[in-house]
Amino acid sequence: MNTSQSVSSGTRWKAAGLLAPGFLLLTAAPALAHRLEQHFTVDPRPVITIHNPNGKVIVRAWAKPEVMVVANHASAKVEVNAEQSGNRVDIMTRQLEDTISPDDLRADYEINVPEDAELQIHNDSGEVNVANVLGDMNVETVAAGVDLEDAAGYLTVKTVGGSFQCLRCAGRLEVSSISGALRLLSLRSYHVRAQTATGNILFDGEFLPNGLYRLKNYSGAIEVRFSPGDSFDLTATSLKGRVNNQAKLTPPTHPPHYLSKFSNTILGTLNAGRAKVELSSFDGTINVLKRD
Q: What values do phi and psi take at 146, rounded to 5?
């Protein structure tokens, strides 16, 4: 065996001595990861697009006017590409063979972008994690969970079965899922629209003056937490499920005529009613609970 075929660890030398050199090379090669690192200088408000069939996508903001892409994948059946066109950087995982397993499709990305970057992310399976990016953002996944932290701008998220969490987000948020659970924590958003068919929804954030907060599901629990000093108009309706409320609401003088007498509904105003909160479900439970 020549020096180019050697392994630095003494223990691995001993293992190699038990095997034919050719067999050692064949078994060791798949474990070697393919790594790509690229840097792109950008102007203010760059657009970053990411298309990945399977894997982890982590995006972090930094103060540099630069996009840094670090990608890793284990299979030679895919390749990763990052290209710049004007003030846009396109990042993509490409399939090189017609038949390929989900494991071979996997690629993991760690991407640093300027704070004001606009993100467009499509990641079918795995996870998406974005922190401190203040530009507009669109995320679409099939089974990948989405976790946003300290994000702002106009945020739109669509998943099929992936869960979603937004921590300390601001701006405008629209999220929809078929079976994923939605957790909206410490929000400072003036417009929130969250909908899932069979998942649970938790909202624990601020109700900003003139803000609109619409949460809807078919089944599962919708939970909204409030403080006694919050100010909102509340309408909470479940056609076949229960509605539990701990807020001391002032009932409306003229209840809206469109509410069904067969549904379970609570409506009224807390304090001055500066925000508008609308909760609806078909047969799920709605809980409006005081914060501990």
A: -125, 130
- pLDDT-flagged residues of the chain (< 50): 1-32
Q: Which H helix or E strand runs over 172?
A: strand 170-177
**Residue 66 neighbours by CB under 8 Å, 6+ apart:** 39, 40, 41, 42, 112, 114
Count CA atoms within 13 Å of residue 30 on its CB side.
Answer: 6
3-state secondary structure of 253: coil
Taking the domains of the chain in order of start, what are their residue ranges?
Answer: 1-31, 33-162, 192-292
Helices (H), the chain: 10-17, 21-28, 102-105
Question: In the numeric block, which tokens belong to residue 182?
Answer: 């939605």
Instruction: Please tell me the pTM assigned to this model.
Output: 0.84
CB 219 within 8 A of CB 238: no
Residue type, 112: N
Nearest to 69 by CA among 46, 95, 50, 97: 50
Of 164, 162, 223, 171, residue with least CA distance to 192: 171
Quick: pLDDT tens for 6-17: 333 344 433 444
